[in-house]
């Protein structure tokens, strides 16, 4: 089991406090036995502080010693492949054997922000296979002799573990063809989970990286000592997603703000459809929910996203999950 951290910024907090809470959570989940800890790239979103995964990963790696750290993910359309190769090559050189480079093919933001990041309107998600091939060639030094980038050296040249991320079948199939591990965003695209994982496994070709498919599934989880408290803590996630869908991203609401929001019937229906795959409840409810998800997906690894604004409540959620899965976490820690 692993952790996906969005570094949530609630309406009663600050980005600085959110980033400090991420470092505290990384230390705590390492002690609990979680396997890896990923941070996600988001831009122009006041409620998420992790705009620069490479920078945050560096701080998290210094604060921990055994936890694998990575990006969930770096959105490749936003960056020149050489820049990503240099950033994560440096991270891997500084923290050998601990860095994951999770790559996504969507910008993860609006078109204006995407243009401001890359300064071009020519790139699209359709360019992703070529951009990915370029990134891997920079890292492995495998450009053909006649390629204009052949003489470029990535310094430092560490090679992190490369993952493909997705919420549909495109990256699933590409990960399979390339023999790479694949992570699926079940927490916001649950309707596509089974089909994408089947496509990944059926497309898989053994590579120097993997001899068999390796799939990770990310689940939205809120666990508390009581079911009532878990429902209260999960309320901001629905309102936050509603505002994002309406093009009005903001700070993560407090539970009180979310529970007081006057949802229209249409808004309530949309939130229900978004959150129906979330695993919310007390420890036993969450244990059963995650067991069901693992059985459904045959995932090799589950990654838990708990977008809770209160750092203490968020840590308690991960503690309860760890207590409910001692055999899984102990096995990871021993390995």
From TrEMBL:
Xref: InterPro entries: Bact_Lucif_Oxidored (IPR050766), CmoO-like (IPR019949), Luciferase-like_dom (IPR011251), Luciferase-like_sf (IPR036661)
SUPFAM superfamilies: Bacterial luciferase-like
Domain of life: Bacteria
Coiled-coil residue windows: none
Record domain Luciferase-like: where: 3-295
Gene3D superfamilies: Luciferase-like domain
Similarity field: To bacterial alkanal monooxygenase alpha and beta chains.
NCBIfam families reported in the protein's UniProt record: oxido_grp_1 (TIGR03558)
Protein name, as recorded: LLM class flavin-dependent oxidoreductase
Organism from which the protein derives: Actinomadura alba
């Amino acid at each position: 089991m692993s952790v996906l951290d969005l570094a949530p910024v609630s309406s009663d907090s600050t980005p600085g406090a959110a980033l400090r809470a991420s470092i505290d959570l990384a230390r705590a989940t390492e002690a609990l036995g979680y396997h890896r800890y990923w941070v996600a790239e988001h831009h122009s979103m006041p409620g998420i502080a992790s705009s620069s995964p490479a920078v945050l990963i560096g701080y998290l790696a210094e604060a921990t010693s055994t936890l694998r750290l990575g990006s969930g993910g770096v959105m490749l359309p936003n960056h020149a492949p050489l820049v990503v190769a240099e950033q994560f090559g440096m991270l891997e050189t500084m923290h050998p054997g601990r860095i994951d480079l999770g790559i996504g093919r969507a910008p993860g933001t609006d078109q204006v922000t995407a243009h401001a990041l890359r300064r071009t309107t020519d790139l699209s998600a359709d360019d992703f296979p070529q951009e990915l091939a370029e990134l891997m060639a920079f890292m492995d030094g495998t450009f053909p002799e006649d390629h204009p980038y052949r003489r470029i050296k990535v310094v430092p040249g560490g090679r992190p573990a490369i993952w493909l991320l997705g919420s549909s079948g495109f990256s699933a199939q590409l990960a399979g063809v390339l023999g790479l591990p694949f992570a699926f965003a079940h927490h916001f695209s649950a309707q596509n989970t089974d089909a994408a994982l089947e496509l990944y496994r059926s497309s898989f070709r053994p590579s120097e990286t993997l001899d068999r498919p390796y799939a990770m599934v990310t689940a939205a989880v809120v666990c508390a000592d009581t079911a009532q408290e878990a429902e209260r803590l999960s309320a901001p996630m629905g309102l936050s997603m509603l505002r994002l869908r309406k093009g009005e991203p903001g700070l993560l609401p407090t539970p009180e703000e979310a529970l007081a929001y006057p949802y229209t019937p249409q808004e309530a229906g949309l939130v229900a459809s978004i959150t129906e795959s979330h695993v919310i409840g007390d420890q036993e409810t969450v244990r059963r929910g995650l067991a069901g998800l693992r059985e459904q997906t045959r995932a090799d690894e589950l990654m838990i996203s708990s977008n809770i604004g209160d750092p203490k409540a968020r840590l308690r959620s991960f503690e309860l999950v760890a207590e409910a899965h001692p055999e899984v976490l102990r096995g990871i820690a021993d390995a």
